[in-house]
Amino acid sequence: MDQKKPKWAEQIGSSPFSTQHFTSELQKKIIQKTTVARVQNRISFIITVGAASALICVIAGLLVLGDTKGSFTQLASLLSKASWQNPMRQAYYDHGKLLLEVFPDPGLQAGKSYGYLWSFKAPFDELKGKKLSIKAEHIHSEQKLVAVTPVEITQPSSGYKGLERYTAAFGLPLSGLWRYTAELDGKAYGDVVLSVQEPSWDLTPQFKSGNYALRGIEHKIGFIDAGFIAGVQQKYMWHLWENGQPLEGRFSVKAVKQGDERIIDVFSTEALGGAINGADRTVVTMMSLPEPGLWRLLPYVGDQMLDSIVVRVK
């Protein structure tokens, strides 16, 4: 991975992320997508305004005819249909004014950390000194999480007058529609709705580190796989690589079964251990998964998901 940080992608203050996710190739893909996305956002806004106007005309006409009860029944039906016709949107408008646009990594999937470019339209003076955080909600299951912990806005994006090129990287545990809400000092500034694709459920392969075979992602994260039997707790040693970015904080493992949206807590500990078997950090865990089948393990350091590992439970 190209570790060179692009000039416009400098983080505001201290970065809340553990690794650099924006390669030069990824930058090109996101920038190429922005023009198309802006056109789509404007079309979506025009359609939304047009639909609202049409609804008002329909209801006004029904009221003129004296069908008050029918008016509200049809209004409820039309609003319900309209809300699902185009749920995805990469921009947020307030009274016709564009406040926020978001451009995600084109390959956005669940189970891995991906990059996002956030473009805030407010003058920088309105943003400076405030703490920016990003929350995400899975629309179908209503599961919520903190994607970006509060970070103070101290300077504009490099080369811009405002916060038009704020980059963030984080992972989401489930595929489907997610609502992302940007908050300033704990108050909602704007939100977007994006589609996160379903990742592969192929069994994650093993790799060699030291004298051991680890299941996971080489030079990033893995564990000595003793196998999984439903309902049986066993010991597993996790290995983590820092790749130039120190890993500190609470280590936890969550899991989700294939075909399910229920995320379970598997293990947590307040601190990581030292280097061993070629890895920078390690931690011994006791883990158990409740049912047979394919499961996706989701390891976290703090609030940030590192990656995901698919295992089979017998």
Number of beta-strand segments: 18
Largest sheet properties: 5 strands, antiparallel
Cα-atom Rg, whole angstroms? 23 Å
What strand order characterises the main sheet?
A: 9-10-11-12-15
Q: SSE order, as H and E?
A: HHEEEHEEEEEEEEEEEEEEE
What does the overall shape look like?
A: globular
Beta fraction: 35-45%
Continuous helix count = 3
> pLDDT under 50 segments (min length 5)?
1-22, 39-60, 78-84
Mean pLDDT: 82
Span between termini: 36 Å
Portion of residues within helices? 10-25%
Find the structural class using helix and strand composition.
Answer: alpha+beta
Write the layout of secondary structure elements.
Elements: H1 24-64, H2 68-85, E1 91-94, E2 97-104, E3 113-120, H3 124-127, E4 131-138, E5 144-152, E6 166-171, E7 176-184, E8 187-196, E9 206-209, E10 212-217, E11 221-223, E12 234-240, E13 251-257, E14 263-269, E15 281-287, E16 293-301, E17 304-305, E18 309-313
Antiparallel strand pairs: 1-2, 2-3, 3-6, 4-5, 4-7, 7-8, 9-10, 10-11, 11-12, 12-15, 13-14, 13-16, 16-17, 16-18
Helix pairs in contact: 1-2
Characterization of this structure:
It is a single chain. This protein has three helices and 18 strands. By secondary structure, the protein is of the alpha+beta class. It has a five-stranded antiparallel β-sheet with strand order 9-10-11-12-15, with no helix packed on it. Strands 13, 14, 16, 17 and 18 form a five-stranded antiparallel β-sheet that branches. A four-stranded antiparallel β-sheet has the order 1-2-3-6. Helix 1 (24-64) packs antiparallel against helix 2 (68-85). The longest helix is centred in the first third of the chain and has 41 residues, at 24-64. Mean pLDDT is 82; it is low at 1-22, 39-60 and 78-84.
